[in-house]
Amino acid sequence: MSAKPMTPEAQEPANPELLALARRDTADPLVLGSPDAPVVLIEYSDFQCPFCGRFARETKPALVRDYVDKGILRIEWRDFPVFGAESDQAARAGWAAGRQNRFWRLHDEAYAEPRRRNAGDFGEDDHLATARQAGVEGLARFEKDMASDAAHQAVTRESDEGYGIGVTSTPAFLINGRPVLGAQPTDVFTDVIDEAAEQARQQEDGDE
């Protein structure tokens, strides 16, 4: 059974098949928040995407402060490189940094300011510099991991997942199975998260 494709109607109720995409893997280094959080936000992003950068700089910090740190929200990253070879390299760099528990620091460094797309800003030398800034200590291991088949397979698996549910552009989000498309204002995310948290609470109360 295939999942229902994403559509722009962000007000649609949660799709159970999309809800089931939350992995809640305790060993996944590309996540923020508790695996037991009542709300899971899945983010399909490209490091070259300017709107993904806007979300990373303007919205994610507020969500981490107000929801992740309070145990309400879990953010699960999915690589969805759509802008060519540099996007794919950046995705593999993120995966490699995650092998040394530095994914989110590299994420924040990569998105710290707008960059040019497909103009060399995400070349090999840049990834090494960003990895250093992110505190990746084993740079030789980082380069090896970045070039590995495992990195390629991980990125392909996640992008295939996105295409399978109808993602066509970045950023795209699922919040407890409910699609939110694009770098929407922060209050759009908080409204959906609040509603999802309340629905989860009511369901838990009903199960007791």
From TrEMBL:
InterPro entries: Thioredoxin-like_fold, Thioredoxin-like_sf, Thioredoxin_domain. Gene3D superfamilies: Glutaredoxin. Belongs to the thioredoxin family. DsbA subfamily. This is Thioredoxin domain-containing protein. Coiled coil: none annotated. The keyword Signal applies. Residues 1-198 form the Thioredoxin domain. Keywords: Disulfide bond, Oxidoreductase, Redox-active center, Signal.
